[in-house]
Specification:
The protein has about 270 residues and is mainly β. It has two domains: about 30 residues; about 170 residues, Porin (Beta Barrel), CATH 2.40.160.20. It has an eight-stranded antiparallel β-barrel. Strand 7 and strand 8 form a beta hairpin. It is rod-shaped and about 210 Å long.
């Protein structure tokens, strides 16, 4: 082999040798950290790290079995009673309540009797009235009424006439404060009597006109139907102590009335 060939071989082998040396160094040295094989991780060298003591996690406390007390709320208070408005807020007197009012009207039959009644016959006639009563639901009530009546007179000689009566009565009424109300009453009144006979003003022993004081008294029963309707039946006696309508010596005259009424209670 010549020198020239040897030189060419060395030129080819030298770079290869240098590349192998460099490759061997790269396997023993870590370029990033500069550490050697002795400083490699246990996973690379095959050795396990020593065990470390790890504290166990604390156990959760067992659930308590104590029952939670149940608080029962108190019952609600009873509802307040609904106020009932009576008599438009006015105080009601239990003996006499004048704001409890009724209006009634009625009709019936009436006639006269007594010592002043002459031999001439006075026939039973029609009677009517209109009445206001205050205190209709209390034990004591007051009444004011217009009274009217007309009776035919049969004179002994065959003549005829009429006896007209119109007046006002006021009385005190005592009653049971119930839906069906029995009652009695008494009072005082005024009466105007007049005889009419074809314009003559005389019929037998009844003559002219007369204004009289009356003393009414009587009793009856009132019933309330529903809230406002009232029905009534009563009998009335009217004493006329000084009668100037007859020519008889006894000036006392008496009148009786039997009537039925219907009305409205406020």
């Amino acid at each position: 082999m010549t020198f020239r060939a040897l030189t060419k071989i060395c030129a080819i082998v030298a770079p290869l040798a240098l590349a192998g040396v460099a490759h061997g160094q790269s396997t023993t040295t870590q370029p990033s950290t500069g550490t050697t094989m002795d400083q490699q991780s246990p996973a690379t060298t095959g050795t396990m790290p020593p065990p470390t003591d790890v504290a166990p996690a604390p156990e959760a406390p067992p659930p308590t079995s104590e029952a939670v007390p149940v608080v029962t709320p108190p019952p609600p208070p009873p509802p307040a009673p609904t106020p009932v408005a009576t008599n438009n807020g006015r105080h009601r007197n239990k003996y006499f309540a004048p704001h409890e009012v009724s209006l009634t009207t009625g009709a019936g039959v009436a006639n006269y009797f007594g010592g002043a009644d002459s031999p001439d016959t006075v026939e039973p006639g029609a009677a009517w009235d209109a009445r206001i009563t205050m205190g209709i639901h209390s034990p004591v009530a007051l009444e004011a009424a217009y009274m009217g009546a007309v009776n035919n007179i049969d004179v002994g000689n065959g003549g005829h006439g009429q006896l007209h009566s119109n007046g006002f009565d006021g009385d005190v009424r005592f009653q049971l404060p119930t839906r069906v109300q029995p009652y009695v009453f008494g009072g005082v009144g005024y009466n105007h009597m007049e005889v009419r006979n074809a314009g003559t003003g005389a019929a037998g022993n009844y003559v002219g006109k007369d204004d009289q004081v009356t003393v009414p008294a009587g009793g009856g029963v009132t019933a309330y139907v529903g809230r406002h309707v009232t029905v009534d039946a009563r009998g009335t006696y009217r004493f006329i102590p000084d009668n100037g309508i007859t020519v008889m010596s006894d000036r006392h005259l008496h009148q009786w009335l039997a009537q039925a009424h219907v009305g409205y209670a406020f």
